[in-house]
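User: I'm writing a tutorial on reading structure tokens. Could you give me a worked example: one chain, its sequence, then its tokens, then a sentence or two explaining what the tokens reveal?
Assistant: Sure. Here is the example chain.
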Amino acid sequence: MSWLTPRDWQQHDVIAATRLNDISTDLNYLFNRPRDETLYEIPVSITMTNTTPVAIDTANFRVSLETFGGDVLIGYSLISSHGTAAGVAIYDILMDNDIYASSKNTVYAARGIYYRKAQDNADQEHITQVFLWTDISAGTHYFDLMAWVVSGTLTLDADSTIQLWALEV
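And here are its predicted structure tokens:
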């Protein structure tokens, strides 16, 4: 949103229709910020053994957002399990070919935005993560949930629902 320069209002200022329209546009943006979400019920279990980031079903599980430039709040929620004790799963978000953790700080690139170590075999966990991606350029952007393992296998069970959403702030 390209905000207008704040105005110093003076007593007895004339409020023209143009100014009222600008205020209306700004308020409409605040109440209807760009957003997108997807809920996806997994039809068959997804098992991953990949040690590099892979998107989870981009055909059915992706959000797109046309932004005015600035910051985007992103969140996801899922239930995952491991096939081995001490298995390690990593989650991150891909936006237009940039993975969030590595785009912000290479120290965290290997651990993603969520790093999970299973406590026992087939340990299930509900994961909900929300974070802010700053300084995004104006335009249409695509967001995908990425996952990979350091060890073991990661499973997203059939009939479980995963959610991904993005909101310009």
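What the tokens reveal: The chain has a mean pLDDT of 83. The first strand starts at residue 35 and ends at 41.
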